[in-house]
Amino acid sequence: MERIFDAEILSNEEVAEKIYRLTVDAPSLERNARAGQFVQVKISDEFTLRRPLGIASTISGHVKIFYRVVGRGTETLSTKKTGEHLNILGALGNGYSTREGKVLLVGGGMGLAPLLLAAEKFSADVLMGGRNQGEVLFWQEEFKPHADKIFITTDDGSYARKGFAVDLLPDILAAENYSAILTCGPEIMMRGVAKFAHEKNLPCEVSFERRMACGLGACLSCSIDTLNGRKKVCKDGPIFNAKEVFDYESDNTKS
Predict the structure, then answer these.
(1) Which CATH architecture best describes the domain 103-253?
(2) 247 strand-pairing partners
(3) In sequence order, what DSSP letters do the residues of 197-245 get, joined into one string?
(4) 148 class by beta-carbon count within 10 Å (0-12 exposed, 13-18 middle, 19+ buried)
(5) What number is the average pLDDT over the span 183-188?
(6) Per-residue pLDDT, 254
(7) 3-92: which CATH number, 2.60.300.12, 2.102.10.10, 3.40.1160.10, 2.40.30.10?
(8) How far apart are the first and last CA of the chain?
(9) 191-229 pLDDT per residue, tens
C-alpha cells in the first residue's frame, strides 16, 4: 500500500557517531508495512528528491528509521526537532517473505535496520557485524526484546568476536536449524551469506541498495541486472531471492 502523509517527529537522536534514530508517529505503516520495505522522505523544499529510508520498527505506530549522516540531505534531516513534521511516501517496495519456523537474520552496519522489523515480525536469531563497539551496542539493545539469540562481530575486535559477520556463519549454521536466512548489508557480505545458504540448501533473501530518485519504478535510476533480466530495486525489490542476483556456478554478482 502506497500513500503520502505527514508524520509528526517524536524523536530524532544520535545513537552512535553520525548515526541517528528517527521516530515518527505513523500508525498506517504499522498496519501495512512489511519487513524490508522503505519510505521516501521529503526532507525540505531545499531538496528536489526525497530520500529513501528503511523501515526499522512499527510498534504502536511509532515508526523507527535509522540513518547515517553522509551528505547535505541527511545532515539537514539530523537537525529536525521533536514536534516538526515530515512528508512521507510509503510503504514502498517488496518485503521479506513470511516464513514458518525460525529464521537467521544477518546484517552489517546500517543494513541491520530492516532486519529489526523482521525480528519483530518473525521468530529469529540475529548475526550482526559492525566496524567497532559503537556501531553494534545500540543495535544490540534494539534487537534484545525481539531476537532469541544475538551473535556479534566487530571489524576491530573492540567488542565481541573480532572479524566479519560472515566468519561466524559456519559455526552458527552447524549448531542451529533455520528455515531461511534474511540478509541486508554490504553487497560483499550478502554475497558470502548467500553462498553459505546455497551450500546448506537454505532459502536466502537479500536486500539491495541503490540510488533511488522516484522510489516508484518510473525513473529507472535503480535498475540492476539479475539472472531473470533487468529489475528495478525500488519496485521489484529491494528484497530479492539470492538466486536471482548471485550466480553460484561462476560466483559472479549480476548487479
Answers:
(1) 3-Layer(aba) Sandwich (3.40)
(2) 252
(3) HHHTT--EEEE-----SSSSSSS-TTEEEETTEEEETTTT-BEEEHHHH
(4) exposed
(5) 92
(6) 46
(7) 2.40.30.10
(8) 27
(9) 999 999 999 999 999 998 766 555 555 665 667 676 676
